[in-house]
Design brief:
The protein is of the alpha/beta class. The chain has one domain: 3-Layer(aba) Sandwich (Rossmann fold). The protein contains twelve helices and eleven strands. A hairpin with a 5-residue loop joins strand 10 and strand 11. It is globular. It binds adenosine monophosphate. Adenosine monophosphate binds next to helix 3 and helix 4. The site of adenosine monophosphate has 16 residues, from helix 3 and helix 4.
């Protein structure tokens, strides 16, 4: 993407949504969109902030129980929190990227009946990589800006965020059991209504793998740490995977094709 200012101007005010399973990179893609001026609205971050700021309220106690188990927090708690965020002036003026919401069909119905979404980005990541990326990749997140790192995409200085120098922490729910539960819920409840979403908004697939395939061993995978690395696809073959910078470039190209190219054609 050559002209960032052109892209910033084209995307201003857009209402976007990142969709995909836990660990697919919704947080990092949201950060890429935030860098273009959109407001990042994450249901996970909003819930964790609510629990942190007001730990003794009934709402927080109820939410935290579900979150610890990797289960979905009930809609009557999540929906008002998110809709309140989206109605803020900053979201109306600058546009937003919604991350982690909707996760149930009811959440999707409320969202799409009240807000017109310009673009849904579906992050297509081989299933086998998700658990691997979060648990074996030792995922850690910035407490301030929520940028995610792993052993594949490590920060320049361990424990410190490259982008804002915030502290990096491991999420307490990033353990095998909870992540498996979150993946199961995604398959059972969330992925199913992607078809409904396709009727209501433009959905673009953002794949994380590069097309050429090759058989490669784990040792090599470790060697490629932080650059391009390899992942087993759901079909059982190995595919090259883009790192953070690669994905950002792919995302910005897709945004340019969606919002700049058609406008120039008109
Ligand atoms: P996340 O940071 O998106 O992985 O979310 C962390 C946890 O917050 C999830 O495992 C759920 O317990 C809860 N959560 C986040 N978003 C939602 C949502 N849209 N609906 C219900 N629960 C949610």
């Amino acid at each position: 993407m050559e002209n960032m200012e052109e892209l910033r101007a084209a995307i201003k005010g857009k209402k976007t949504l990142v969709f995909g399973p836990p660990g697919c990179g919704k947080g990092n893609r949201s950060k890429d969109l935030e860098a273009l001026g959109l407001v990042h609205v994450s249901s996970g971050i909003a819930l964790r902030a609510k629990v942190r700021d007001d730990p003794d309220s009934e709402l927080s106690k109820k939410a935290v129980d579900f979150m610890k188990r990797g289960e979905l927090v009930p809609d009557d708690i999540v929906v008002p929190i998110i809709m309140e965020h989206l109605n803020r002036d900053e979201c109306r003026k600058n546009g937003f990227v919604l991350d982690g919401f909707p996760r149930t069909k009811d959440q999707a119905d409320v969202l799409f009946s009240q807000v017109g979404i310009d673009l849904v980005l579906y992050l297509d990541v081989p299933h086998k990589f998700l658990l691997y990326g979060i648990v074996e990749g030792n995922r850690r997140l910035c407490v301030d800006c929520a940028t995610g790192y792993s052993d594949f995409d490590p920060p320049r200085k361990e424990g410190v965020c490259d982008k804002c120098a915030g502290k990096l922490i491991k999420r307490t729910d990033d353990n095998v059991k909870t992540v498996e539960n979150r993946l199961k819920l995604y398959e059972e409840q969330t992925k199913l209504f992607l078809r409904d979403i396709e009727i209501k908004a433009t959905v673009e697939i953002l794949p994380i793998t590069v097309s050429d395939e090759e058989v490669i061993d784990d040792k090599y995978l470790k060697k490629l740490k932080g650059r391009v690395y390899w992942v087993q696809t759901d079909q059982g073959s190995k595919a090259r995977m883009l790192n953070l910078e690669g994905m950002k470039k792919r995302l910005y190209n897709l945004l340019a094709e969606t919002f700049i190219v058609p406008a120039k054609r008109d």
